[in-house]
Amino acid sequence: MKNTVNTGLKVPDKYNGNQLTQVKNYALFMDYINVNFTGSPVFNFEGVKATFEDYGTKVFDKRVTIDYKGQEFGTLVFSPRSAIIDEHLCQFKLSNHLFYTNSLSTIKNQLIELTELMGLTYKNINRLDIALDFNESNHNVTALLRNICNNDVLISGREKDVNIFSQTKKGKMTFQGVRIGARTSSRFLRIYNKTLESKKNLKTYILDAWSNMGITNDETNPVWRYEYQLSNKFLSELEGITLDSIFSNEGLFNLLKTANSNHFELKHNTEKAQVNQEQNFAFICWDSVANTLELVSKTITKIKRVIKETLIGQQRMVKSLLRSYVSTGQRLEYILPMKIMLSDFGLWDWFSKKLPFYLNEFEKKQFIKSFNRSQFNEDLITEI
């Protein structure tokens, strides 16, 4: 990637997204991927070390740590506990260090090679996290969050959860990050002070990767991470999403840009009647990022689908599964297919509004004998 030099110019709080004339440094990473496969895995071949863990997960009975060609490669889970899930479904979560010490093409080739040896067939992506790192001197996140809190900058689009994190330092408020959306939604944005986070969870391979890409890790000019968590639902609705496209810098960048579109779009606040009439507030210029990273910026289009099932029918099925879940002592086999339907048909917003009414109804009809809300919340965010 291109090495560039920052000028260190400071930006006033009201400035339009820090879009000064200085050249910027960026580092683009895949930070997490969980891949769905089908098959019955075998491990008796040269070059692999399979360590079976004592316990599986809530969803899968078997959990195996895989070392391949002398390094930890990832964790494979298989043998679903629920009969509702395809018995041949497997999930492979790749180890985090791979993304910062290997090229994406090397990781992809080894993943394909390894899973073919194990007898697995690629199905789709369960979850993908994409991160863009930069120094605060390039994009003043602190100023942006202050302006959002003061309503000087607006977040356009549908209503969404916004959680801003801060703490006091010498009596003054300092911003640490923000979360946009919900973890259970199809896309979820985190912007946070990665320099501060790295003190709590030091990963030297990330620091080395920053250094190689011209990103400085300094408390006076911290690294901020702009990271989207994308679900299977989000990815499955886009055209041309393959392992080849995902395991490329160009593919990752365009997915990140697509995720940001209509989700975290910012506007100036001049008190117009409608937010979409306000002037755009350009915090990050994606074309400039593409040019700096020497990538081609393009639009990813959505797949046109014909859905035969009515939403009303799906909503009734979700309610029925929720009723079975609460009336059987919160058995996971009912909540898992419910979550699949909520994701596949984009019903999470509807469900969050209906949930308190449904629980109240079930309690009045004595379907609920005992209900652990903490357990329910934990089950609800369990990855499938």
Order of helices and strands: EEEEEHHEHEEEEHHEHHHEHHHHH
Number of strand elements: 12
Mean pLDDT: 87
Percentage beta strand: 25-35%
Give the number of helices. 13
Strand order of the biggest β-sheet: 2-3-4-5-1-6-11-10-9-8
Q: How does the overall form come out from the CA principal axes? A: globular
* C-alpha-based Rg, rounded: 23 Å
Distance between the termini: 35 Å
Supply the helix-strand structural class.
Answer: alpha+beta
Unreliable sequence segments: 1-23
Main pleated-sheet profile:
10 strands, antiparallel
> Approximately how much helix is present in the residues?
25-40%
Structure description:
The chain has 384 residues and is α+β, with helices and mostly antiparallel strands. The protein is built from 13 helices and 12 strands. The protein has helices at residues 98-101, 104-117, 141-149, 194-200, 204-212, 232-236, 243-246, 249-260, 286-292, 311-327, 332-344, 348-364, 373-380; strands at residues 27-38, 48-52, 60-68, 71-80, 89-94, 121-135, 153-155, 162-169, 172-180, 187-193, 223-231, 266-268. It has a 10-stranded antiparallel β-sheet with strand order 2-3-4-5-1-6-11-10-9-8. It has a two-stranded antiparallel sheet with strand order 7-12. Helix 10 runs antiparallel to helix 11 (332-344) and helix 10 crosses helix 12. The longest helix is centred in the last third of the chain and has 17 residues, at 311-327. It is globular, with a radius of gyration of 23 Å.
